[in-house]
Please model this.
Amino acid sequence: MSDALRIARGQFGRVALLDMDRPLVRHAHPHCHVLLKVEGADTQFSVRDRMVPLTDESAVLINAWEPHAYEHDLLRPKTVILALYIEPRWLEHFRTNWGASHAPDFFETSVGSISPDIRRLSRELADAMVHAPHDAALHEDMLGRLMITVIERFAAWRTLPY
Model:
């Protein structure tokens, strides 16, 4: 599976900083799910029965209840991943129609090219989880800024009904 280096929980759902060095079985959950590489080797996930890359330049985007898995290559070094499991109700606080993140097509694609802002915000959140592990307010604030940036880049939220 993987080792959780840090986990933050709150009304937003869960954020895990994971050391991925073993496979993760095919599974699904009710969250808006985003995977961002923090450090280590490039890797890939199976989403919708298709392999998609997780690199310094790409994010893996997984809709609620969408089956996904991690097939670790034993010849590849470990990867540290920031895994976001976000509650749709929490996202509604930013924009009402972001509650549609529970829908099967909230993200139109399972991989997307990240912006420098997404890279910076994800690394800052990972750093805060390591160096200020008990600062829940800081984590939630940073996660909010990151999720706004992710959704504005990867979801067709403007066309979703209110």
Helices lie at 88-91, 116-131, 136-154.
